[in-house]
Amino acid sequence: MKRNLLSLALLLFVGYTATAQKVEFEEFDLDNGLHVILHQDNTAPVVATTVMYNVGGKDREKNRTGFAHFFEHLLFEGSENIERGEFMKIIPANGGTFNASTSQDRTDYYEVFPSNKLELSLWLESERMLHPVIDQVGVDTQNEVVKEEKRLRYDSPYGKLLETIGSNLFEVHPYKDPNIGYAEDLDAATLDQFNAYFKKYYGPNNAVLVVAGDLDLEKTKAMVKDYFGAVKSRPEVIRNFPKETPITQTKKVKAYDANIQIPAIIAAYRLPGQASRDAYVLNMISSYLSGGKSSVLTKKIVDEQKQALQLAAFNLPQVDYNIFALFALPQGGTSLATLLQEMDEEIAKMQTELISERDYQKLQNQFENQFVSSNSSVAGIASTLATYYLLYEDVNLINTQLDLYRSITREEIRDVAAKYLSPNQRVEIEYLPKKDDK
């Protein structure tokens, strides 16, 4: 869900410097299990409220994919005290902005308001959690919205890239299905199933509330208790997802997409989850390979040899397994096999040689800039605090993660590349425009 409401855009960056500073925060739990994190910064009259639920695309039963993403839309329909369609009118009418998003691991909702509207923000989110209206009219309306989103995004050129990777990289874990789900599953879902899903996953003890910005700590605590204290806790969500068998032999597949014209080569690896130290190292490896115009793969294959129109190496963070993937579109008569070989050559160098001290320092600078940028607004800080609590189980990462990156050595980069990025540990996908008629 995207909203281009910019009434507070200039205020979001007031009061933050270009260097990392310690973020102070306070935590407490309500009796119903809702975890609350408060961050006070009174330099600008802005407050951000984030509620992140521990539910994502992976949380589904057989033939019930896409529920988490569907609820991202459905819970803007209204509540017992907010008429249908009014939720998204109230926020801009009071000078606020809002958004929501879903990943395979979590769903979050946030608002940014002038600080004198904090109570309104808390009321809106408590209404979403306490008694939303989930009826057939809302379900039917949002089903069409989700289908249109799928047509615009997933049915666009290369829009099914992650879906293609997931379906070939995972065999038993629910990461194998796309976060947006399958249209036939949503069409077949009943109203009772949607209500059951809400009752299972949208309890206060399966969520974290973060309020950041221009606030009074004691008054905010009292308001949080007033608005969320009445929400009843739910049974603990038990997850026991099946484990994937390690890949020990290269798997080669072909995938077809009628929405593309240029073929692509993908090499995908299933790696440890985002909270592991190795995942941080792999973040640095992906940036070294394709993070910017001066990165080794971009400079060599795109700029100098002109063999690729575009390429990328990315490490997609997820709780249970990260996805590390190489992706390239050929230029001219370059074959997909040649592109993969050229990328493999640079990875092989990383596995046996240390990257240069100059490249190492450039990586450190990149990650410091990214870290500071992501926490340069109260909305960014609120999102970061929620993410680190819910998905990393360490809120203080907001103050220590940069030191973690700084502690990664060139030797560690070499060793992690050698440990995980060998051809026998991956799925190689030829991503082709259309299937031959033969």
From TrEMBL:
Residues 36-170 form the Peptidase M16 N-terminal domain. Coiled coil: none annotated. SUPFAM superfamilies: LuxS/MPP-like metallohydrolase. Residues 189-366 form the Peptidase M16 C-terminal domain. It holds the Pfam family Peptidase_M16_C. InterPro entries: Metalloenz_LuxS/M16 (IPR011249), Pept_M16_N (IPR011765), Peptidase_M16 (IPR050626), Peptidase_M16_C (IPR007863). It comes from the Bacteria. Gene3D superfamilies: Metalloenzyme, LuxS/M16 peptidase-like (3.30.830.10). The keyword Protease applies. Residues 1-20 form the signal peptide. The keyword Zinc applies. Belongs to the peptidase M16 family. This is Insulinase family protein.
